[in-house]
Amino acid sequence: MKLLEIKELLQAKVLWGEEFLDIDVSNxxxxxxxxxxxxxxxxxxxxxxxxTHRQIIQTTVMGDFAAIxxxxxxxxxxxxxxxxxxxKLPLLTTSxxxxxxxxxxxxxxxxxxxxxxxxSDRSSRGDSESPEAMRLTYDIVGNDFNSAGKAAxxxxxxxxxxxxxSGVIRKVSVAAYEAEMNxxxxxxxxxxxxxxxxxxxxxxxEDEGPGIPDIEKAMQEGYSTAPDRIRELGFGAGxxxxxxxxxxxxxxxxxxxxxxxxxxxxINL
Length: 269
Ligand SMILES: Nc1ncnc2c1ncn2[C@@H]1O[C@H](COP(=O)(O)OP(=O)(O)O)[C@@H](O)[C@H]1O
Ligand SMILES: [Mg+2]
Prior knowledge:
Blueprint: H1 3-9, E1 13-16, E2 27-30, H2 34-39, E3 45-49, H3 55-62, E4 67-70, H4 78-86, E5 91-93, H5 98-107, E6 134-141, H6 150-161, H7 166-186, E7 189-196, E8 200-208, H8 215-218, H9 228-231, H10 240-247, E9 250-256, E10 260-268
Parallel strand pairs: 2-3, 3-4, 4-5
Antiparallel strand pairs: 1-5, 6-7, 7-8, 8-10, 9-10
Helix pairs in contact: 6-7, 7-10
């Protein structure tokens, strides 16, 4: 289905990106929680959401969505639209609520084709282009929501440039973004370190912070100590660590109270 058809079905207004209305869309995700959006593993999908703050753009880019449709008549602030332009991410707004918007698109056939998703033309890497082992390090500052997500975003750009498979990029990006947000939300400062080898990508998220008193509990889906102001942004769903584990082939976490936390993940190529 073309984005134009989605626009018409939802009687939506284009906030930015008229020139992208002929892109093909094969699925959709409707969610107001960042971790749910990131965990949604579909290709060529659009995002339907009521969240309009700047982190939604980063989350959408990390999750590889083709466009955002804001529901309930929401319109993001101008600086958020500017961010979307920089990412070439079309933005639409519909007055339908989330449930109805999803229903309209589902009924019209969007996302009912089970075979879609396999056909990703964005992946391909000849052996001759095999990347050399390389390391990327990014500093993360706690509580800095203006820069939050930038490290994962930059790393993703590098992975694309060196021709890493798009499915791998997706996993690394989601894991990195969740890890970065955990440092921003729960710690004082930290680092994301990517080591890219010909066979796997290792991602270490290391911070100075309060540490985690009970790792088993922290790993449980839905467990979160994030305060209300964080939850209002769509974070704090308690799905970050479970998502990181889900998207990694190897996952380990170490934490020392009063010192900090280290998460190590490996994603095979
Ligand atoms: N780097 C960290 N430093 C301290 N605590 C953390 C860190 N990462 C996670 N936690 C703790 O583990 C909980 C679960 O983390 P996560 O699954 O990412 O959910 P969320 O971030 O949505 O709360 C957090 O609420 C927090 O209590
Ligand atoms: Mg988290």
